[in-house]
Write a structure and sequence with these properties.
Blueprint (H helix, E strand, L loop, with lengths): L2 E11 L18 E9 L2 E5 L2 E3 L3 E5 L4 E6 L8 E3 L2 E5 L4 E2 L6 E7 L4 E6 L9 E4 L8 E4 L4 E6 L2 E7 L4 E13 L2 E10 L10 E6 L5 E5 L2 E3 L2 E3 L2 E7 L5 E9 L14 E9 L5 E6 H6 L2 H9 L4 E3 L6 E3 L3 E7 L4 E6 L4 E6 L5 E6 L6 E7 L2 E6 L8 E8 L2 E8 L9 E6 L2 E5 L9 E7 L6 E7 L9 E3 L1
Parallel strand pairs: 3-11, 24-27
Antiparallel strand pairs: 1-2, 1-5, 2-3, 4-15, 5-8, 6-10, 7-8, 9-15, 10-11, 12-39, 13-14, 13-40, 14-15, 16-17, 17-18, 18-19, 20-21, 22-23, 23-24, 24-25, 26-27, 28-29, 29-30, 30-31, 32-33, 33-34, 34-35, 36-37, 37-38, 38-39
Length: 468
């Protein structure tokens, strides 16, 4: 019989991202972490919850402890001085070295051997299958359940176990100015795993070495406190984080044929400064209610959802699911799934420059490819296949081209062009094939065909961001 326990270990680390507890609060930049431990027979297994390159880990052991062995695949430089065990993590974590003992020491006080592993038993990275050569130079950023992972082929550069489920993990287009320094990466940890429609939580900011430097738990718009939402994040021209929110509010919807039964979730966007105050903001409800004649027939036909987990009925009528800033055109590009629309917003978030519409698309991951091209993953939940949507601007007018994908991503996901003839479709809340979370698509055949995949027995990720 195997007894599971939690070992609380005093930790001092260089560049380590420790976790105070497995509660829905941001990890502290501090010196205490929790490790998961297995006690079995005469030895105890200790599993680290975080990994990043070359970190020096120190924690307290009992008196009369001694090093028995180090990993044969990498030098841990393990030492015990008094009651302090010190060892160094490798520059990368090879997938082949997962679940292998890294350092072993013996405790004289309880006559027990301790085995230290670099990963928890439930950590399962994604695997590559088929022709995935187009991903050779790409690092995948993804969030399978309670893990945040940066992986390039068979090498893991970073992972962290989060208190609740993680959602989006992305490399920011430019460094974000936060209190702790310059943020290169960001991921969101949900504060309520019961939420299905919306993903409220806190953003965690990492520097270029994956070291945690700050977090955003709440922010203020005109004195009203709001919680960030996890579908996406970007950076403003001035370097401030720009976040999304589903803000519950009571509104007058009597101008609709079927007024909403209670509060709504307003799809908001806010550029926030280092004090978490909004510098600029956008309210979708304020925008549409200012043009009731235009938006009444649209909203009368718009699919809505009720999120009862908030303690009251709040109607999700717009469902914002992607956000990015394009420095070439100085615009934000925002996807609203329920509205089947993509908004192009001015850099001060005060003007809607254009609206791109495709009925039934239920799109995700809208991105400005260049000054005249916008792409998105058209999920087409109610149809039999998803589509690549490409809008092109010519002589002041947007035209749409649709290409059918050889898969059906019901919800969520992202699409990236890797070469002239290869696309990558990643993530998905309703995957096209169970256990497959990424698809390499070739355009050299008619119809387009699948040539490679990303698979795992782990929990699927909302999407798989790619970075060089």
């Amino acid at each position: 019989m195997r007894l599971r326990t939690l070992l609380i270990v005093s930790l001092v680390a260089t560049g380590f991202v420790p976790m105070q507890s497995h509660a829905a609060t941001p990890p502290a930049i501090a010196s205490v972490t929790h490790y998961e431990g297995d006690i079995r027979g005469p030895y105890t297994s200790i599993y680290l919850d975080d990994f990043s390159a070359n970190n020096v880990v120190k924690f307290t052991v009992s008196n009369q402890s001694s090093i028995i062995a180090e990993s044969t695949t990498a030098s841990a430089n393990a030492t015990i001085v008094g009651t302090t065990l010190t060892f160094t993590l490798p520059p990368v974590l090879e997938v082949s070295d997962l679940n292998k003992v890294y350092v072993t020491y013996h405790s004289g006080s309880d006559n027990r051997d301790y085995w230290i592993f670099l990963n928890p038993p439930k950590f399962r990275p994604y695997s590559y299958s088929g022709d995935t050569s187009a991903l050779d130079s790409k690092t995948m950023l993804y969030t399978p359940g309670v893990f945040v992972v940066a992986q390039k082929k068979n090498q893991i550069f970073y992972f962290s176990r989060t208190p609740n489920s993680a959602y989006t993990f992305k490399k920011l287009r430019k460094a974000a100015h936060v209190k702790g320094g310059e943020a290169t990466y960001a991921y969101l940890v949900k504060t309520d795993d019961n939420r299905k429609v919306t993903q409220p939580g806190f953003w965690v900011y990492l520097d270029s070495t994956y070291k945690m430097i700050d977090s955003t738990t709440v922010f203020s718009v005109a004195g009203v406190k709001m919680q960030p939402e996890g579908h996406d994040i970007t950076v403003s021209p001035s370097g401030n984080p720009v976040v999304m929110t589903y803000f519950p509010r009571k509104v007058d919807s009597n101008w609709l044929s079927k007024p909403y039964p209670g509060p709504i979730f307003d799809c908001g966007i806010a550029e926030i400064d280092k004090k978490s105050n909004a510098v600029n903001s956008f309210s979708t409800w304020d925008y549409v209610s200012a043009s009731k004649k235009v938006w009444k027939p649209i909203l009368d036909k718009t699919e809505t959802a009720i999120d009862t987990s908030t303690g009251y009925t709040a109607t999700d009528w717009c469902h914002i699911n992607s956000l990015d800033y394009d420095p070439i055109t100085s615009q934000y590009i925002v996807s609203f799934r329920s509205l089947d629309r993509i908004f192009l917003l001015s850099k001060d978030l005060k003007k809607v420059n254009a609206i791109l519409y495709q009925p039934g698309a239920r799109q995700h991951f809208a991105r400005m490819i260049n000054a005249t091209t916008v792409t998105a993953l058209g999920n087409y939940t109610s149809e039999s296949a998803s589509q690549l949507l490409t809008w092109t601007l010519k002589k002041g007018k947007w035209s749409l081209k649709k290409d059918t994908l050889p898969l059906h991503m019901l919800y969520c996901g992202n699409i990236n062009q890797l070469s002239a003839s290869t696309y990558f479709v990643g993530g998905g809340c309703g995957t096209a094939t169970p256990g497959t979370y990424g698809y390499l698509v070739s355009t050299t055949t008619t119809p387009w065909s699948l040539i490679g995949s990303i698979t795992s027995s782990a929990i699927p990720a909302y999407r798989i961001e790619l970075t060089n």
